[in-house]
Design goal:
Shape: globular
CATH superfamily of the largest domain: Alpha/Beta hydrolase fold, catalytic domain
Number of strands: 34
Number of helices: 13
Largest sheet: 11 strands, mixed
CATH architecture of the largest domain: 3-Layer(aba) Sandwich
């Protein structure tokens, strides 16, 4: 109640033409949050929250952990208080800094994600943190998602005070793995709709609307418009992608991921390729922190992070570097769809790759079975392209993560090949690799390969998947159209996976040309051909992990090491008074847009998919409501004419004042172009204050 009254006084007395109102410093549960500015060389001030031990002595010199994001630290204050409290109580200062032009920070909104400007500012921030009187001079950086991305990117710059990083659910390859081009193919995501309107929210807690606000935020070019003009790999993406040169990181790196998250591939790649000290961990989670897991089981990852940072920032021998380098959660079978708990067990591995892996090819046969040897006589299996196929395999914002549905709907429109029932439990861990000899009677096509588990009752759980654009068969930087009717070979890795196929289950490999709505449809009606058997036969190689002993069934005792990692119990996260989440509608889960309706009209061959979402939070100074809706539509007979319509809005209520920022996106295609139409609007108490629109006509460069 005291916090709420304090903020009401602040808001009532604020002069909206004067300097930005700041949140008050507070102390709660032995932790003090101090608000400060970090001034950059050009005079722009970045807003920072410092979470410090309340009982710290004046002469204490503590290491600092940095989380550096555009995601509005003030509205995240309570959430981050809960997350950071663990580190503060272990003798750290944690700094949460809003990037230039975002949240409470000053300046022009960063031009797009992961710019040089963002990283140059980050170097100043790290240096500033290292030179404060309460700092011991050692800075660590950590984060999830964007915070993982830029932890990796800042480590690539090796600023002197940055001694170690921990990156959870980030990537070393932003072209193939990020949300704009999935596997190098066009992808239209609810994030792209929502982030553009979130970027232009005014600065809290007063949400001042003035000329500077319009210049620096509201009128800036939408990021989606920029990214969709960069349709192939190259310098634009390589500027912030580690995979072009792993030697750029010279500091200790701890990389984490989750099996139900789309960024997991970076964990083994960085384990394999970094020469700096490195550890990896991958568990059974979607896009979330493991101390607040979805699905279960979670772990107290912060204890592992403290051991890591204590070693590198405090010089303490915590034993963290004496353990095997890779902790992996091995997944047991579960049915398709959402699960609350992902069954499996933890195991240590010495690193990556796992040396005992048996790379085992599985060859499709003419009778749609799988065999360890290719068919002697080649045959051609044809498949009509159905653009609206794929929602069961990747229909949500899944990025080859989340929880795919039962695959039978997608498999019905795929070339599917099944093994005989397995005579023993069979584990895979790694990147399955697809080699396909294919052709198409059109100049462009995408190919998707999925590996699934067929249980005795017929349900099909997707285990791994991945896709490749035909134009990228030789190079993602220099695409080349295919020649209709001409056979060529596609060879690529599917996404990182772990799975134990139980005895009596069957393995399915399915091949098709659509993964909608995750991947934008290619424009041509067509039939594709996959060559089965003969020399250099099409196949998928599975990374099979043999059991430690000769028993038929794998168990916790058959891991590579006698003992797996033992994690500490999850410590409950405290919260701040005056902050609470509003209940979301029944149509959503935690504010993320999900597929909630699929309307197929067999008379018109049209399918419409809607992905609505809403969210809301109460703060001491305002209540904010968020909603979004993304609708995809495709006709199987005219795949060129696909569309995605997006809406998003923030409604900020402060007493009698109500601000509403909203946007409308129209993304549609024809045979040659993508058409972009975007509108932003700002209303105050129902009155339109500003509206701005953008349009673009973008050539379909092999998409």
């Amino acid at each position: 109640m005291i916090l709420r009254v304090t903020f009401l006084i602040l808001l009532l007395t604020a002069n909206f033409s004067d300097a930005q109102t700041r949140l008050p410093d507070i102390t709660q549960d032995g932790i003090t949050i101090r608000e400060t500015w970090i001034t950059l060389p050009d005079g722009v001030r970045l807003a920072a929250s410092l979470f410090v031990p309340a009982d710290s002595s004046p002469d204490a010199r503590l290491p600092v952990l940095l989380e550096y994001l555009p995601y509005r630290k003030d509205e995240s204050r309570s959430n981050r208080f809960g997350l950071f409290s663990y580190f503060v109580k272990q003798g750290y200062v944690v700094a949460r800094v809003d990037m230039r032009g975002t949240g409470t920070s000053e300046g022009m909104l960063i031009e797009y994600e992961y710019t040089d400007q963002e990283q140059e500012d980050g170097e100043i921030v790290i240096d500033w943190l290292s030179k404060q009187p309460w700092s011991n001079g050692n800075v660590g950086m950590f984060g999830v998602s964007w915070g993982a991305f830029n932890s990796i990117q800042m480590a690539m710059r090796n600023p002197p005070a940055l001694k170690a990083i921990l990156a959870h659910q980030g990537t070393d390859d932003i072209y193939r793995d990020d949300v704009h081009f999935m596997d190098g193919m066009m992808h239209v995501d609810s994030y792209e709709v929502g982030v553009d309107i979130a970027n232009v929210l005014p600065r809290p807690p007063d949400y001042l609307i003035d000329d500077a606000y319009f210049t620096e935020r509201f009128d800036t070019k939408p990021w989606m418009m920029i990214f969709k003009n960069q349709q192939h790999d190259g310098p634009f993406w390589n500027r912030a992608s580690l995979d072009t040169d792993y030697s750029r990181i010279k500091i200790p790196t701890f990389v984490m991921g989750g099996w139900y998250d789309g960024y997991r591939d970076s964990v083994p790649r960085m384990l394999e390729n970094l020469s700096a000290p490195v550890k990896g961990l991958i568990g059974p989670w979607a896009h979330t922190w493991p101390n607040d897991p979805y699905p279960m089981p979670g772990i107290e990852w912060r204890r592992e992070a403290v051991r890591w940072f204590d070693h590198w920032l405090k010089g303490e021998d915590t034993g963290v570097m004496d353990e095997p380098r890779f902790a992996v959660y091995v997944r047991n079978w579960h049915p398709p769809g959402v699960v609350e708990t992902a069954p499996g067990f933890w195991r240590w591995e010495d690193g990556w790759p796992v040396k005992r892996t048996k790379h085992t090819p599985m060859y499709p046969q003419d009778n749609h079975t799988l065999s360890a040897t290719p068919a002697e006589n080649p045959s051609a299996h044809k498949l009509r392209y159905v653009p609206t196929v794929g929602v069961e395999a990747g229909g949500n914002v899944s990025w080859w993560g989340d929880f795919p549905y039962d695959q039978r709907g997608t498999d019905a429109y795929s070339l599917a090949y099944d093994s005989a029932p397995l005579d023993k439990d069979t584990e895979i861990l790694g990147f399955p690799r697809a080699v396909l000899n294919v052709s198409a009677d059109a100049p462009a096509a995408n190919w998707f390969v999925r590996v699934s588990d067929i249980s005795p009752d017929g349900t099909v759980t997707q285990v791994a998947g991945g896709g490749l654009k035909s134009a990228h068969r030789d190079s993602a930087e220099k695409p080349v159209a295919l020649v209709p009717g001409e056979e060529f070979t596609l060879e690529y890795d599917l996404h990182f996976t772990s799975w134990i196929f139980p005895r009596g289950h069957r393995i399915r490999i399915a091949i098709n040309n659509a993964m909608w709505p995750m991947i934008w449809p290619t424009p041509y009606p067509m039939t594709t051909t996959t060559r089965i058997g003969g020399r250099n036969a099409s196949h998928v190689t599975l990374p099979i992990i043999p059991p430690k002993d000769s028993s038929e069934n794998l168990s916790k005792d058959s891991s590579a090491h006698d003992d797996g990692p033992e994690f500490a119990a999850i410590v409950p996260s405290p919260s701040l008074p005056g902050y609470e989440a509003l209940p979301v509608a029944d149509t959503t889960v935690s504010g993320y847009a999900e597929v909630k309706s699929i309307e197929r009209n067999p008379l018109t061959a049209t399918t419409v998919i809607r992905m609505p979402g809403d969210d809301g939070s109460v703060y001491p100074w305002a209540t904010i409501y968020y909603s979004e809706d993304l609708t995809h539509e495709v006709n199987d007979n005219t795949p060129a004419l696909a569309s995605a319509l997006g809406k998003a809005s923030y409604r900020i209520v402060q007493g009698e004042r109500e601000l509403t920022l909203s946007c409308d996106l129209v993304w549609r295609s024809d045979a040659k172009f993508f058409h972009y139409e975007y509108a932003r609007r700002l209303h105050e108490n129902g009155e339109l204050l500003r509206e701005k629109t953008w349009t673009d006509k973008i050539p379909r460069n092999h998409h």
